[in-house]
Structure formats: structure tokens, C-alpha cells
Design goal:
20 strands, 14 helices, binds 6-O-phosphoryl inosine monophosphate, binds guanosine-5'-diphosphate, single chain, 437 residues, 4-stranded mixed beta sheet, binds magnesium ion, alpha/beta
Length: 437
């Protein structure tokens, strides 16, 4: 059975964690395959909230194997905190495997992220999560100053760190000689040797293990991180993350053939959020934006930053769904827009006299677009208790079906609150495309 993949269709935080946790019940293996501590995935069950950064959201389901694939960058201190936090809450991590190919985040990466993020890109700050993600991937691609998990267990580890610290000192002193001088190789070596002892039971070459699983037809769930519009090649460059975070990145990050993914589920909020810099055509910089932020509790899972909020952008989501090869959509946070007096969707972009359904390749062009709006009278109903399609107000059903029509993919699941149980499976005859809108 080819695997399932969950991909964010906006700028991250679409509630992928919630959906992955739900879908884990139908799978045997959950794989995280990109990003690192920049991700913050939330799972809520039985009134308990779990926030995960590296560890797959499948970990709360006992009996499932959880894999961190080669495309992830791991900060050992952060992942060990996650492991400890789970164990303290009696969640077993015995079935966690971490690829020995993952690249490790070192203190210099965090320093570099702080130094470079403060440099403006065309007058605007990228607004990274400051978790050292970009610098770590930069070293991975550059190769000469990279360290992978497998290197921690080799006899030349100390020598490798000493050599790299020397290079990093030289590079960083161009920014700030004081900061460069603070890099202390012996202390870093000691610290990371401590991490090595604790991470060793989890480290292995996950690639042949996953290939065996693929060939044995085990049910695999791939957990995307970030969102399609943050993709390094296909997103709103340079206001993106450092990986192919759309659907095109799954095989490379996990180390499986493309054919291993059969079903692509795109996750989108019923509105839009973005953290950090970059253009956002449907952004609401007014009281309505504030209202959505408060209703949706839109503050970063990783950094606590207030998220920028705006209306659903069907142009952007349609682009993301096509790029990521999405078969169906899970529409999240419908309860949030259900409280508003009016709800809007951007159906097209206007550029001068012209209207287009295409998503521009250059951020300067994206900054120029004017959304073409479709407005819906709000249904102003508390739907957090809805559990089946017929519990939803007619206006909410129409909103869902209109989104499906505009994006060109059926909405098969709707989320009406953070908890596992606050989820509605849309009956097949109601998925808009089959219903003809
Ligand atoms: P992820 O990064 O895509 O996994 O998403 P985050 O966990 O960063 O952000 C989603 C937030 O929305 C979390 O706090 C979830 O608990 C919460 N959430 C998930 N689904 C819903 C929903 O349908 N309604 C509401 N109100 N909150 C939700
Ligand atoms: P999850 O998996 C939302 C954003 C940052 C910044 C840009 C680059 O929880 O959806 P980085 O630290 O990756 O170099 O930052 O990408 N970003 C995210 N935004 N959710 C995420 O992950 C994100 N991961 C990165 O805010 O704009
Ligand atoms: Mg998140």
C-alpha cells in the first residue's frame, strides 16, 4: 500500500500535527522528513496538549514506529528535551528511530541565524525562527563544515569540531569578533559527547529500514513540516525556509522512492496565517485580523510570536495543492471563522487591469496583487461541538464546498477545534467536487 503524506498548503501551522495524530491510527509508521526545531506541531487529546518539534506526531499512538528521516536537521539539546518531556508524561519513545544521516545544529548555527536574520532582504527581515535551521542546511549543502549524527560516534569527532570551530571563528569575526571568540571547542565537544551517549539508542541508518518497510507494504504516513508556500524553490523566496517543504520534497527528505507516496492530503486553515516576513496578499492588518488571532489563538508554537492573520487565499492554496499533488484537503479551524459576522475568500489576483489565478514567482509581483474577494455572510455559530456534516450550519457547508471548488480538490475532513474528537469526516457525496459544487 503506497504511503500517505500530510502537507501544509499555506505558510505553515495549518494544524498538520492534529491531522497526523488522527491518521496515525490507520498507519504503522510515521516519518518526519524535513525541517527541525523551526517546526512546532500541536496535538491535543483528552484535554492534554503536546507540542512537538522534531519528533513525529505519531508518537502518542503506542505501537507505531516513528522515524526521523535524513532530510531533518536535529538540535540534540531540543530533541532530548522533547524525549524527556514525553517520558515524563508516560509516552514511550522506544519506537523512535533517528537517521544517522541527519545534520546536527551546533551553537554557531544559532549565532549565524541571529546575525544574518537581522540583515534586511530588500528592506524586510526574513523573520526566521532563529533555530539555526538555514545555517545548518547551508553547511549541509556546502559540505566542508557539516556534521551529521553519525559523526558524533566516530573517533575523529573532536578533531572535526576543532577544525570547524577554527573556520567558524574566522567567518564570524567578520560580523562580530567578540561573538567569534566565544566559540569554545572543548566545551562544545564535551556537550555533544553527552548528547551522543543519550542519542545513540535511537540512531541508525533509517534508509534501508524504510525501504524494507516500503517493500513489505507497511502503511507509512509522511508528516510534512512548514508549508508549501515556504518551499525554498517554489515558495515566496527569499521569505521561505531552507527545504522543499511542498509535496515535491517528500521522497528526498525521507529517503524513499516517489512511488512510496500514494495519497497526498493537503492541510489548510479556513483562513490564512503567516509568521515572519514576506508578502501576504490577504493579510488583515486591522481589528478583524486581531479578532482572528485571538479566536484562533494564533501565536507561534515554537517562538510564541503573534501570527499574521488574513482571509483564505484560494489562489495560493490552489497553487500549493497543484504543486504538491494533493488529492484531498483537510480544512482546519473552521470554528474560528464560524464566529465572524462576515467571511471572505480571495478568488483571483488583480494586477493592474488584469485578473489572474496564477501565483507569481517573484515576491515583488506578489506584493503588487490586489485580491478579488468573494464575501460570505457569517453564520456566527459555535460549531466546536459539531461531529458530523449535518451538524454544520448550511452556510458553513457552502463555504467548505466553495473552497473545494476554488482550489479544485475535494474537502474530505473538517476540523472544528484542537482536540482529536473535534473532527468531521465529510461524507463522500458531500465532498464538493463529487457534488458538483
Ligand atoms: P502545525 O505546525 O501545522 O502542526 O500547526 P500548529 O500546531 O503550529 O498550529 C495549529 C494550532 O491550532 C494548534 O494550537 C492546534 O492545537 C490548534 N488547532 C488545530 N485544529 C484546530 C481547529 O480546528 N480549531 C482550533 N480552534 N484550533 C485548532
Ligand atoms: P510548522 O511545521 C510556520 C517560517 C519562519 C520564517 C521562515 C524561515 O510548525 O508549520 P526558518 O527558521 O525555517 O529559517 O524560518 O519560515 N517557518 C514557519 N512558519 N510554521 C513553521 O513550521 C515554520 N517553519 C519555518 O517563521 O518566516
Ligand atoms: Mg506549527
Amino acid at each position: 500500500m503506497p504511503g500517505t503524506c500530510v502537507i501544509g498548503l499555506q505558510w505553515g501551522d495549518e494544524a498538520k500535527g492534529k491531522l497526523v495524530d488522527l491518521l496515525t491510527a490507520e498507519h504503522e509508521i510515521v516519518v518526519r522528513y524535513l525541517g527541525g526545531a523551526n517546526a512546532g506541531h500541536t496535538v491535543v487529546t483528552g484535554g492534554e496538549q503536546f507540542k512537538l518539534h522534531h519528533i513525529p506526531s505519531g508518537i502518542l499512538n503506542p505501537g507505531v514506529d516513528n522515524v526521523i528521516g535524513p532530510g531533518v536537521v536535529v538540535n540534540p539539546a531540543v530533541i532530548l528535551q522533547e524525549i524527556d518531556g514525553l517520558e515524563q508524561r508516560a509516552i514511550s519513545v522506544d519506537r523512535l528511530k533517528i537517521s544517522d544521516r541527519v545534520h546536527l545544529v551546533f551553537p554557531w548555527h544559532i549565532t549565524e541565524d541571529h546575525l544574518t536574520n537581522a540583515r534586511l532582504v530588500g528592506g524586510e527581515n526574513i523573520g526566521t525562527t532563529l533555530r539555526g535551521i538555514g545555517p545548518c542546511y547551508r553547511d549541509k549543502v556546502g559540505r566542508t563544515t557539516a556534521i551529521r549524527l553519525g559523526d558524533l560516534f566516530r573517533s575523529d569527532f573532536a578533531e572535526r569540531v576543532e577544525r570547524i570551530v577554527e573556520i567558524k571563528r574566522q567567518q564570524l569575526s567578520a560580523f562580530d569578533p567578540d561573538i567569534a571568540g566565544q566559540l569554545d571547542a572543548p566545551a562544545i565537544i564535551d556537550e555533544y559527547r553527552g548528547y551522543a551517549r543519550r542519542l545513540e539508542p535511537f540512531a541508525c541508518d533509517t534508509t534501508p529500514w524504510l525501504l524494507d518497510a516500503v517493500e513489505a507494504d507497511r502503511a507509512i504516513l509522511f508528516e510534512g513540516a512548514q508549508g508549501s508556500l515556504l518551499d525554498i524553490d517554489h515558495g515566496t523566496f527569499p521569505f521561505v525556509t531552507s527545504t522543499n517543504s511542498s509535496g515535491v520534497g517528500v521522497a528526498a527528505g525521507a529517503g524513499v522512492p516517489f512511488k512510496a507516496v500514494g495519497r497526498m492530503i493537503g492541510v489548510a486553515k479556513a483562513y490564512t496565517t503567516r509568521v515572519g516576513g514576506g508578502p501576504f496578499p490577504t493579510e488583515l492588518e486591522d481589528a478583524m485580523g486581531d479578532r482572528i488571532r485571538e479566536l484562533g489563538n494564533e501565536y507561534g508554537t515554537t517562538t510564541g510570536r503573534p501570527r499574521r492573520c488574513g482571509w483564505f487565499d484560494a489562489v495560493a492554496v490552489r497553487y500549493a495543492a497543484r504543486l504538491s499533488g494533493v488529492d484531498e484537503i483537510a480544512l482546519m479551524m473552521l470554528d474560528v471563522v464560524s464566529r465572524l459576522p462576515e467571511v471572505r475568500v480571495c478568488t483571483k489576483y488583480r494586477i493592474g487591469e488584469r485578473e489572474t489565478g496564477d501565483f507569481p514567482s517573484h515576491v515583488d509581483d506578489l506584493r503588487q496583487v490586489e485580491p478579488v474577494w468573494e464575501s460570505f455572510a457569517g453564520w456566527e455559530t459555535d460549531i466546536t461541538g459539531a461531529r458530523v456534516w449535518d451538524d454544520l450550519p448550511l452556510a458553513a457547508q457552502r463555504y467548505i464546498q466553495r473552497i473545494a471548488e476554488l482550489v479544485g480538490r475535494p474537502v474530505t475532513r473538517v476540523s472544528v477545534g484542537p482536540d482529536r474528537v473535534q473532527t468531521i469526516d465529510v461524507p463522500l457525496e458531500r465532498t464538493a467536487l463529487e457534488a458538483g459544487g
